[in-house]
Amino acid sequence: MLTLGVLCSGGLGFDTLVKIKNNYEIKFILTDKKSLDIIQFSKEKNIPLFSGNPRNGLAYEFIKNIKVDVIVSINYLFLIEQDIYNHSNKITFNIHGSLLPKYRGRTPHVWAIINGEKKTGVTAHLIDSGCDTGDVIDQIEISIGENDTGGIILGKYSKEYFPLIKNVLDKIKLNQLKLTKQLEEDASCFGKRIPTDGEINWSWNTEVIRNWVRAQAHPYPGAFTFYNCHKIIIDKVSRINYENNSNIQNGEIVKINPDIIVKTGKGFIKLDIIRTENCIFKIGKKFNNEDRK
Prior knowledge:
elongated; Rossmann fold; 5-stranded antiparallel β-sheet; Methionyl-tRNA Fmet Formyltransferase, Chain A, domain 2; single chain; 27% strand
């Protein structure tokens, strides 16, 4: 049986880790200090664990005497340095949430929804010195539904991560691994997102705002705007036909009962689900990102 080292973080990392442990021998785990489920799991299963920043040789000092055939990285928060990815006897690979070489970088599924993509996927690829640049081992394509949120796509990922890992490990055992170089001319890269990146620009057209909102909806921090100094988080919106008036400004509320309807750059949008407290909306008032405490 192949022996594994597993690098993982977060809920997706934990769910996949449990499935791996049910089928393979795990010799060590690397995670971050906030992934408490993973830390607890390692204690319960008596698996050697390093938690925290692995760089500058810190994690390597921990694993250097633990021999493994394969190292697999799942949703791991840190870039992996050469001392770690060269440690495995056979290969070190990562599971990335896009169809590489497109959407390298952080939260690729969120960026894909923001950009109106109709499909995404998961890729198993070798880890090298770049960010998601290593040779592709295998990929699974996943559709993005018209109303899919970032959370829904993450749920779709969770069903595919372990089968993809198992497929790679089966190929390793059978010595049938085939690698494909990534084409740099097809590559795209997107950066890390933080909660303050979610501001809505009401001059955008309706579909851009709709994608922006659903990509970041609960359980993510959410797209947001401001009204009377209150931060309004918006989790779901819908396109709607409404009689236009050239005097209506972008971000202006045109209806509040039974639904809140807002003017956008090209049309109108209905606010279906919002997160706010003690806020009374009025027709003619504007959502304004400069109106904040």
